[in-house]
């Protein structure tokens, strides 16, 4: 899995509604290239089995999982693949802001009212990229995500899209993510340097292992190389690092 590394002062300040979608606004930016590296390494990880559903999460809050997942989704769409991005964070949704969409109806509407997912799917400004926002915040997120309706939804969208990405809550906050991690083809863990603690990351990996999730690797976010130069990438699960 690629490590997404950027300098603190890199000019990646192109913002759509407060969320950095550098891959959409500045596709030639060096940061955009790193997101394409993330995409490429996920593609390589699916040599033996095609990945159709992919979940992005983190151990805790404020690690950048929503920004990483949104930008990576854009890179697949730019490659010409038909992508569906689902905001499965039914507690603190953010995808509608990332893509400047309305959130009157969404995933919670499908699961609560048994709507057809086509009724709530929205086209973004990015060709080939469609979104299902979270919808109204429900009183029972974990129950909805663990329902048969959610399973049927995943089966339905898998048949219609090349790849389905889900943005979900942090692993250590609620049980929602464990429920979904067991149902998707792959999981990517976003780790932010200076925010994530080693013990928290280790526990997050343990929770994924408990439900036999397919952990593909990690994205190391907001890392400043010691030599202060450039960007790089590496491989592995690497959850035994950090300075906290």
Automatic annotation (TrEMBL):
<dbReference type="GO" id="GO:0004715">
    <property type="term" value="F:non-membrane spanning protein tyrosine kinase activity"/>
</dbReference>
<keyword id="KW-0418">Kinase</keyword>
<keyword id="KW-0547">Nucleotide-binding</keyword>
<keyword id="KW-0067">ATP-binding</keyword>
<protein>
    <recommendedName>
        <fullName>Tyrosine-protein kinase CpsD</fullName>
        <ecNumber>2.7.10.2</ecNumber>
    </recommendedName>
</protein>
<dbReference type="InterPro" id="IPR027417">
    <property type="entry name" value="P-loop_NTPase"/>
</dbReference>
<comment type="function">
    <text>Involved in the regulation of capsular polysaccharide biosynthesis. Autophosphorylation of CpsD attenuates its activity and reduces the level of encapsulation. May be part of a complex that directs the coordinated polymerization and export to the cell surface of the capsular polysaccharide.</text>
</comment>
<comment type="pathway">
    <text>Capsule biogenesis; capsule polysaccharide biosynthesis.</text>
</comment>
<keyword id="KW-0808">Transferase</keyword>
<keyword id="KW-0270">Exopolysaccharide synthesis</keyword>
<keyword id="KW-0829">Tyrosine-protein kinase</keyword>
<keyword id="KW-0972">Capsule biogenesis/degradation</keyword>
<dbReference type="GO" id="GO:0005886">
    <property type="term" value="C:plasma membrane"/>
</dbReference>
<dbReference type="Pfam" id="PF13614">
    <property type="entry name" value="AAA_31"/>
</dbReference>
<dbReference type="InterPro" id="IPR025669">
    <property type="entry name" value="AAA_dom"/>
</dbReference>
<dbReference type="GO" id="GO:0005524">
    <property type="term" value="F:ATP binding"/>
</dbReference>
<comment type="similarity">
    <text>Belongs to the CpsD/CapB family.</text>
</comment>
<dbReference type="InterPro" id="IPR005702">
    <property type="entry name" value="Wzc-like_C"/>
</dbReference>
<dbReference type="GO" id="GO:0042802">
    <property type="term" value="F:identical protein binding"/>
</dbReference>
<feature type="domain" description="AAA">
    <location>
        <begin position="64"/>
        <end position="196"/>
    </location>
</feature>
<dbReference type="InterPro" id="IPR050445">
    <property type="entry name" value="Bact_polysacc_biosynth/exp"/>
</dbReference>
<dbReference type="GO" id="GO:0045227">
    <property type="term" value="P:capsule polysaccharide biosynthetic process"/>
</dbReference>
């Amino acid at each position: 899995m690629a490590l997404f590394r950027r300098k603190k002062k890199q000019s990646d300040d192109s913002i759509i509604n407060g969320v950095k979608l550098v891959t959409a606004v500045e596709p030639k930016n060096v940061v955009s290239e790193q997101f394409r590296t993330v995409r490429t390494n996920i593609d390589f990880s699916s040599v033996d089995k095609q990945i159709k559903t992919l979940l992005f999460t983190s151990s805790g809050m404020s690690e950048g999982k929503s920004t990483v997942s949104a930008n990576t989704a854009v890179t697949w769409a730019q490659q010409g693949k038909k992508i569906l991005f689902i905001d499965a964070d039914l507690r603190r949704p953010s995808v509608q802001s990332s893509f400047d969409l309305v959130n009157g109806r969404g995933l919670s509407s499908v699961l609560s009212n048994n709507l057809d997912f086509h009724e709530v799917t929205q086209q973004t400004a990015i060709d080939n990229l469609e979104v299902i926002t979270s919808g109204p915040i429900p009183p029972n997120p974990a129950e909805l995500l663990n329902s048969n309706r959610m399973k049927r939804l995943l089966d339905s969208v898998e048949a219609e899209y090349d790849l389905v990405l889900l943005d979900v809550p942090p692993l250590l906050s609620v049980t929602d993510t464990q429920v979904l991690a067991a149902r998707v083809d792959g999981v990517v863990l976003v780790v932010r340097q200076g925010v994530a603690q080693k013990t928290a990351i280790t526990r997050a990996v343990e929770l994924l292992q408990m439900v036999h999730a397919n952990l593909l690797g990690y994205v190391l976010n907001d890392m400043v190389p010691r030599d202060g130069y450039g960007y790089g990438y590496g491989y592995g699960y690497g959850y035994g690092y950090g300075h906290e």
